[in-house]
Hints:
The protein is mainly alpha-helical. It is built from eight helices and no strands.
Amino acid sequence: SPKPVSRPPPSFRRLLSLNSPEWKHGLMGSLSAIAFGAVQPVYALTIGGMISAFFAKSHQEMQARIRTYAFIFSLLTLLSVILNLIQHYNFAYMGERLTRRIRSRMLEKILSFEAAWFDEEKNSSGALCSSLSNQASMVKTLVADRISLLVQTTSAVTIAMIIGLVVAWKLAIVMIAVQPLAIMCFYTRKVILSSISTNFVKAQNQSTQIAVEAVYNHRIVTSFGSLGKVLQLFDEAQEEPRKEARKKSWLAGIGMGSAQSLTFMSWALDFWYGGTLVQKGEISAGDV
């Protein structure tokens, strides 16, 4: 028997190479994501300045500073709308082009197989249609949506850390030290929800295959009175993932609650230690 042809393992670099014709959109989307990531740290810095403005020595100085910060808030609003529009448009354009390209290649490859390949149960018309629909969309999510979020988050975290270390380095170090706990809780919750989503996708593929086969052979189903049996098979295909989702939803809720509680506890630590530094005269109230 002939040896199976070895294929290179799928890689993220290969997906990016498939999206290389849209590199200009990727560059524009990445720059917009980096700029939008800076909005939240600048907003937090502006909030601190606004609070400190209320403690100005004269009424005229307070008015001037508040007017300046109000203008900054308005500018941040306008920038957020523009940057979000540019970011999501460019990454969505990349994702749609990649989806169309992958679906075309998948369909071209499927149509090149011999007729016996389609006789296997896993290669039925329903399963193939479901695969064309879901797998290409998953790749779009991986390349377009994930890159957008990754660039934006990296930019926000980096700029926030730099601003924090410049303004109040002692307080920033304390806050950076407690962040891994919250990140761990959020990551655990994400893993659990991802597992639930995977099971739902698997159940959807099975149920989609059953539904497509039933519609395609509706005359046979009707003539043999098998409508009830088809509905039973459709429901059974989703029963096991439904039970598992109920169990894991409790774990996801606990993980989410723990992450939120750690977030509020870190804020409490932030204000307590910040108040201590203000009392010692090392930083101002606006720096907190």
